[in-house]
Structures are given as C-alpha cells and as structure tokens.
C-alpha cells in the first residue's frame, strides 16, 4: 500500500481536493463566467442561495485532502470521499458534459484506485 504509485495518487488527489474545496469555501470562482448551460447555472445558484451546502462540501473536501496529503486516516478519508466523487461525476454527466467531465472522471478514478489499494481495510464492512 505504500508504493510510490499509491503515494503519488494519494498526494495528487489530496491537492485536487484542497484546491477545489478551498474554492467552494472562499468563493474565488463564482462560476458565472463559465457556466453557459441553464441547468447547471440554476443548480449551482440554488446551492449558493441556500448558503450552507457549498461551504460544507468545500470544508469536507479540504479536510479529506489534508488527510490524504498527510497520510492520516486514509481509509476513513476515502469512505468520506466516495459519495462526493460519485456526485461530482453525476453532476458533470447530467449538467456539464463538456466542461469538467475529465476532472470529475479523474477524481472518481483516483478515489477508486486508492479504495482498491486499501481494500483489505474495507473488507470487514462488507462481510
């Protein structure tokens, strides 16, 4: 589990989560300039109007990213990330197929690879 390949994947995924989670927390890019699709802009505007969803998801992404970069509680971080990465992937499949689909696929793929690498620690959850 501590191969260089796993270390690189864990670090890259952690950095991606920290950057995009901080973006949700700090609202650096509000998305109005690069959201041409009506469905996508309506969806993200509704989350912004509610007020708590994007900061909570952003804080979770930053927390998970820090755990991955520091190699602390990696299986726990991967379990927390699983529904978030599926939601990111589904968001881009249904609302923004052309825009961030590659990034969403990369996050889901890296999460899947790390879950596979840590599978012995997840086995008790399924038996």
UniProtKB/TrEMBL annotation:
Q: What is the lineage of its organism?
A: Bacteria, Pseudomonadati, Bacteroidota, Flavobacteriia, Flavobacteriales
* Subcellular location field: Membrane
What is this protein's name?
DoxX
Q: Which InterPro entries does UniProt cross-reference here?
A: DoxX
Question: Keyword Magnesium, does the record have it?
Answer: no
Transmembrane listed as a keyword: yes
Keyword terms of this UniProt record: Membrane, Transmembrane, Transmembrane helix
Membrane topology (UniProt): Multi-pass membrane protein
UniProt main location, coarse:
membrane
Q: Which residues cross the membrane?
A: 12-29, 49-70, 77-95, 101-119
């Amino acid at each position: 589990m501590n191969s260089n390949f796993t270390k690189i994947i864990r670090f890259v995924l952690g950095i991606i989560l920290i950057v995009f989670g901080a973006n949700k927390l700090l609202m650096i890019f509000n998305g109005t300039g690069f959201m041409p699709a009506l469905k996508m802009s309506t969806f993200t505007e509704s989350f912004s109007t509610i007020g708590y969803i994007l900061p909570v998801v952003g804080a979770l992404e930053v927390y998970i990213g820090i755990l991955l970069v520091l190699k602390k509680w990696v299986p726990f971080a991967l379990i927390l990330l699983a529904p978030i990465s599926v939601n990111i992937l589904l968001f881009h499949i249904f609302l923004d197929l052309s825009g961030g689909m590659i990034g969403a696929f990369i996050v889901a793929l890296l999460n899947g690879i790390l879950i596979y690498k840590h599978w012995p620690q997840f086995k008790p959850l399924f038996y």
